Amino acid sequence: MSALLYQEAARVIGICNSCRYCEGYCAMFPAMERRIDFAREDLDYLANLCHQCGACYAACQYAPPHQFAVNVPRVLAQVRLVSYESYAWPRFFAAAFRRHPALIALTLAASLTFFFALGIAWRSDGFFLAHVGEGSFYAIFPHNFLVTLFGLSFVFACVALAVGAWRFWREIERPDERVASGATLAALKDAAALTYLEGGGDGCPESSTAPTQARRVFHHLTFYGFMFCLASTSVASIYHYALGRIAPYAWSSVPVLLGVIGGVGLVSGPIGLLWLRKVKPAALYDPAQNSLDVGFTSLLLITGLTGLLLLGARASAWMPSLLALHLGPVLALFLLLPYGKFVHGIYRTLALVKYRRGY
Ligand code: SF4
Ligand code: SF4
After folding, report:
1. CB 339 within 8 A of CB 296
2. Which of 20, 29, 204, 308 is least crowded, fewest Cβ atoms below 10 Å from its Cβ?
3. pTM, whole model, 2 decimals?
4. 155-171: per-residue pLDDT in tens?
């Protein structure tokens, strides 16, 4: 099955390599031009340079109904998905990528049940409408319990992501590859700025062939929203452990301000990305890869939304329920990070490092 897919990808990329019309659109085309053969590891590398912006599909004179049936974004999306599965750790969880929406629903249901059941059991004086004072999260779930649970989940996610990234890099890096000075920094800048979502300068074609920067903006909101939320949690930990300042923190405090900015990004970005997916031509997407993207984006949206709701109502009697409603998605997100769209960011950055080295 995957042998046929790689054969098809090599055929499509082979046509592009003769045509080269799209070479200014993104890093994938110049990297392709440095090769004449397309082995599996080459295609894994090229596929992870693609953002699926659709610019080359909109411009392609060989796209269906032409008999060459060239659809670069779709075939590279299919290869990307197989690459995620191939390098996943533990191998047993590779199947999770293709069952992502079902797995999200299951993990979310299990983690919500876990927090609600625990809350009800621990707060025998009444969990659902217990008003325990502004932001007294730790009266519902003790701080040490939360740190241990989320710390362990986070460490597991980091280890799984690191092993997958190392396997991917070992496969795509050539033994004779030279380390170019500044390549890693340039690649990190490209990844952080989403340089290749510019579609050659004007943006990506969305509902029509007219390019816009909408996808880049929504992607930035999502990614930086996530990073601001992480920063908020990290600063709160420094407050707690290093400065001895115990939550709740004021609205004007650094952790809350970072959390609000992150939450707004984590709600507006995914809404925009899900909307763009609706208006973009369906031909660009592979159903399995589409489910993976939509599932992960929806989980981010739920996490951001419940986080903002919790913050807004932290002084109300709804706080314990909203806390459980927020912790459930956060735990599901941590556990599923290595088996969802998040890996794209890591593989893509590694592919950009190779690209910036000149290979
Ligand atoms: S996508 Fe089409 S137009 Fe662009 S390089 Fe490939 S074959 Fe040529
Ligand atoms: S990033 Fe865009 S232009 Fe480049 S290969 Fe992918 S879909 Fe085509």
Report:
1. no
2. 20
3. 0.91
4. 999 999 999 999 999 99
